[in-house]
Amino acid sequence: MNSQDPSPSSGPAVRPPVVLAAAAHPDDIEFMMAGTLLRLKDAGAQIHLWHLANGCHGTAVHGHDEIVRIRGEEARASAALEGGVSHAPLFDDLAVFYDAPSLARVAAVVRDIRPTIILTHSPRDYMEDHQNTCRLIVTAAFSRGMVNVVTAPPRPVWDASVALYHALPHGLCDQLGRPVAPDLFVNTAPVLERKRAMLACHRSQRDWLDASQGMGAYLEEMVRMGAEVGRMSGRFACAEGWLRHNFLGFCAEGFNPIQDLLKGDCHAQTA
Ligand SMILES: [Zn+2]
Known about the structure:
The relative contact order is 0.17. Helix 3 (about 65-80) runs antiparallel to helix 6 (about 190-200) and helix 4 (about 100-115) crosses helix 5 (about 130-140). The chain has helices spanning about 30, 35-40, 65-80, 100-115, 130-140, 190-200, 205-215, 220-235, 255-260; strands at about 20-25, 45-50, 85, 115-120, 165, 185, 240-245, 265-270. The protein is α/β, with parallel strands linked by helices and about 270 residues long. The structure holds zinc ion. Zinc ion (ZN) binds near residues 24, 25 and 28. Zinc ion (ZN) binds near residues 25 and 130.
């Protein structure tokens, strides 16, 4: 709250923008989205963090229930650093499927949150959990006002505008190894240390990423990717890149709340 907030006598309070970062696994938000999430928070938005899968396969050491508990605690600690609302996962890793029962569960959470801005994976990301998370989130948002789409549990429809933004795929290349260029860059340099602190909460992944994907210094890998996207932007030392989802069915054509909120720290790249 600040001195600009409307008093009760000046009419109904204006709802601040609500941002939902929805990713597949417990550390995906911190790798590719958290910088933008923090910039939007600093611009007055409420932030929600949701990893749809529980991270159960991100280990070579722990059993299923133990690693799910550990990774849940890590994700909640990361969100708590910044006062974000953390939402519980719904699925096991490698069991995120685009089907009607899954969609009903995902749509219930999205209807509860009622986001103005959704940050999610690229539809052309390197693994199926990421792609299916993206598809589920897109349709959950698309169906927000459809009364005959019954969610599980049932939740009321909502029909405000929502803008969807897709992160760059992990490694900045699509599933066929081709580079993906964003059309929007967000300057994340002012929040880099806070983003790094959030990622560092995922301690269980330090050894796992080294063993499974050769990402030994995962904090440095995040910083390196940010610098690479910064170079792509041609103006920021460190950045996250985004591709806007087609506005049809979601909002008016010009609705671009990230640009509106971040102004000069958001740079649109025209093809
Ligand atoms: Zn992931």
